[in-house]
Amino acid sequence: MSLSSLLLVLLSTVLASVVALASRPAWRPFVAVTDLFEAAKGLALAFLLIVPAACVLSWLMGTLLQVQDVTYLRTVTFVAILLVIVPLAEAAMHKWSRYLPQKPGFQLLTIANAAAPGVALLADLRMDTVLGAAGFGLGAGLALALLLLAFAAMYERLTHLDVPLVFRGPPVALVTLGIMALGFMGFVGVIRE
Amino acid sequence: MAVKIGTRGGLRLEAHKERSTRQNLRAASQPPIVVLPLDQHTGLPAIAIVKAGDRVLRGQPIAQPSGSLSAWLHSPVSGHVKAIEPRPAPHHLGSPTISVVIENDGRDEPFDFPARATFEELPPEELCEHIGRGGIVGLGGAVFPTAPKLWSGMQAHGPHLILNGVECEPYISCDDMLMRERASDVVFGARVLLHALSTKSCIIAVEDDMPLALEAMRRAVAEAGDSRVRAQAVPGIYPAGGEKQLISTLLGVEVPFDGLPADVGVLCHNVATAAAIAHWIRDGRPLISRIITVTGDGVREPANLDVLLGTSFASVIADCGGYTERMERLIMGGSMMGLALPHDELPVVKATNCIVAASRLDLEPRAAEMPCIRCGLCADACPAFLLPQQIHLHVQSGDLAGMARYGLLDCIECGCCDYVCPSQIPLVERFREAKPLHAATLAERNDAALARLRFEARAERLERLESERRAALARKRQELTGKRP
Amino acid sequence: MLTALLIMTLLVAAAAAARALADRVQRDPTDELIERLNDLLPQTQCGRCTFTGCRPYATAIATGAADINQCPPGGDRTAAALAELMGREPKPVDPGFGVLPSYPRVAWIDESRCIGCTKCIQACPVDAIVGASRYMHTVIADQCTGCELCIPPCPVDCIEMRPAPQALWMRAQPILSLSTSTSH
């Protein structure tokens, strides 16, 4: 999978997350956090925990499946791995972080959005070693977190502006994200494939 | 108009002071009637101690302070009190406020104040109180009662004293003329203040583009021979004369937005206040007049006049040759922070430092407002190191927390951001409207917090009384029955 | 085939175990939530919401025993802020809990009729009434929250509600023009 496609996947994940964060109060991932940027910070932390773990575990699982010759199970096992990791991350945040995840928002956002880099991973297994998988996961997690924070901040600023009625909310967010994406696409050329 | 933005915020503006400083200071003509609002100072309005029909003398006290933050008021003429009734006032933008109306009998008979010891012999607290009795308030525009300010200064144990002669706002030249012609009064006032505050240093700050005033000040300081007082030139960048800006320039200390200069060990008074103190302490003349600049393209002969309080604006302008045909707007104050007035039948109050009869030449009409293009010129110009465009963003969307986060309360309303905005957004107006909103929300929250504290204290007290009662009951039972309950 | 089944069973079991662990570790959010809800309430302690004060009402909202539209002194602004915090749709205050005028009011004791019985002093939740047995009672206007709890106990019916002193009222004026934007 090329870097630009990966970036595209990440950006759409971020768009979906932020629009979900901002729209329905019932989908809020954390208890008693009304500020969009605060919620984004908490979600970014969650991604940083979940995505690397998901990548490493699914790489390990991938090799196990290959050894057992049951590679057709890859997609299902990936989903199952996510279902193991997300509650653990939720427990970790309950115990050690000041953000308190609440149902169903937290699970909705993390499972759906952590799956995105996973899909990218599954599409073509570019890592040769477990360390490579860890690196990829960490990188993807960091990228997701950074983009999420950047976009949440921008979305918050958009709410203060005098946007025409038809464009308010997701439409202007899409336009803004598109322009931001143009900027990030410039980074793609830095890394030679 | 060439404008250069200073490196630490602020603007270099054209002064427009040459026309009004050509002639010497002169007294305005005696008015037939004076109107004296009772609330022409910060704090609670004064309470009248005369009534309609009373005869009063020049300098006689006619209203006393109504609390710790209030001031005395004296009659500027001798005559009869015609009425005490609501009259339009300039500091209320022309809406009425209770005022004492005195008819001048033309005899100018002075009120005799009892003789007092010289100020050096009075203990500081008594001197403070005596200064208050002269009706002295800050004449730089804030009209803060001087005695309470000195009290807070005394708590600071020997604060630095600064006399503010930095008249940075365009058109206003009253302090300039005061320093040119009555610099010795300012120095005398400085010495009185030094004694009242029991402190040892006083800096008289003068703008560097007022060379005559600076020279006169330096001469007066040298003549007085008091080593504690010195004159200091300050770069003429607007708003260098703002209290917080001046303190930061001279002493390098920043005053927090919710604090006063006294909290950081500084006290700042206007040079005109010092001169008023001198007239009261040395000559026994309370605050009954002040120097006013009358200028603008809309008046025939701009000048600085020594005007009795309560004189009407119309009379003062008539003293300067009357209006020209180009006159469009009447403004009290300067071109940056002045307030537009609806008509000239308003009395001069302690806060009136300048009357600008503006024509199109003086003040270009504002073009239509356009959306913010986020150019950042306002942030460069702000002398308080704020981000006006961010504050404006939050003001537009009514986000009170956001406004406060970006420092709305630190805004000194100087108008620099407004001046440079290419989209002609009336920023100062917006911030002025937003501040009471924010203050009201804060006040509401404070009230709720206080109510909660009292409620919790009461609950605790009731519980404590209850447990004490139960303990006493248990003890009593034990005594009576001889057994443990 | 068997290995596939084994792997899937193990994974499902692991997922179930993780879920159980997460449910066990769950920290009780109520204390912090109650505190935040209480901070939004006006602290009038009037009891119009049917609870005995503002904190009991906040507790009820947190545990789900009460709705967010029961506080008339807070008005629609407070109801909107409470809704925002609880993640629900905002709704206006239910008029069944009381309708208050738009300006702030404080209690006032008619001193010519007061008999000094201290019943109102005992009733006031914030100790805003000064007085003692058989001495004149008076309300400290600055501290009165307008809860009206002192009016029923008075045996000679000498307490009435009056508009708050002008200083307090003028201060509240800008808020009356504020829209129900939920930014706090």
Structure description:
The complex is a heterotrimer of chains A (193), B (485) and C (184). Helix content of chain A is 75%, strand content 0%. Chain A has helices at 3-22, 36-68, 74-96, 105-123, 130-160, 170-188. Chain B is α/β, with parallel strands linked by helices. Chain B has a six-stranded mixed sheet, with helices on both faces. In chain B, strands 4-10-9-6 form a four-stranded antiparallel sheet, with no helix packed on it. The radius of gyration of chain B is 26 Å and the shape is globular. The termini of chain C are far apart. The B-C interface holds B 397-402, 436-437, 439-441, 443-444, 447-452, 454-455, 457-458 and C 38, 41-45, 53-54, 125-128, 143, 145, 171-175, 177-179, 181, 183-184.
Short description:
The complex is a heterotrimer of chains A (about 190), B (about 475) and C (about 180). With about 190 residues, chain A is an all-alpha fold. In chain A, about 75% of the residues lie in helices and about 0% in strands.
How would the blueprint of this fold be written?
The complex is a heterotrimer of chains A (193), B (485) and C (184).
Chain A: H1 3-22, H2 36-68, H3 74-96, H4 105-123, H5 130-160, H6 170-188
Chain B: E1 4-5, E2 11-12, E3 26-27, E4 33-37, E5 47-48, E6 55-56, E7 61-64, E8 73-74, E9 79-88, E10 96-104, H1 124-133, H2 146-155, E11 160-165, H3 174-197, E12 202-207, H4 211-224, E13 229-234, H5 243-251, E14 266-270, H6 271-283, E15 289-295, E16 303-308, H7 313-319, E17 329-332, E18 339-341, E19 354-358, H8 377-381, H9 388-397, H10 400-405, H11 416-420, H12 427-481
Parallel strand pairs in B: 3-16, 11-12, 11-14, 12-13, 15-19
Antiparallel strand pairs in B: 1-2, 4-10, 5-7, 6-9, 7-8, 9-10, 15-16, 17-18, 17-19
Chain C: H1 2-25, H2 30-40, H3 54-63, H4 75-86, E1 105-109, H5 119-123, E2 129-130, E3 138-139, E4 159-163, H6 166-176
Antiparallel strand pairs in C: 1-4, 2-3
Radius of gyration of chain A: 17 Å
Radius of gyration of chain B over all CA atoms, rounded: 26 Å
How many E-type strands of chain A? 0
| Distance, first to last CA of chain A | 10 Å
| Low-pLDDT stretches of chain A | none
Main attributes?
heterotrimer, A: mainly alpha, globular, B: 485 residues, alpha/beta, six-stranded mixed sheet
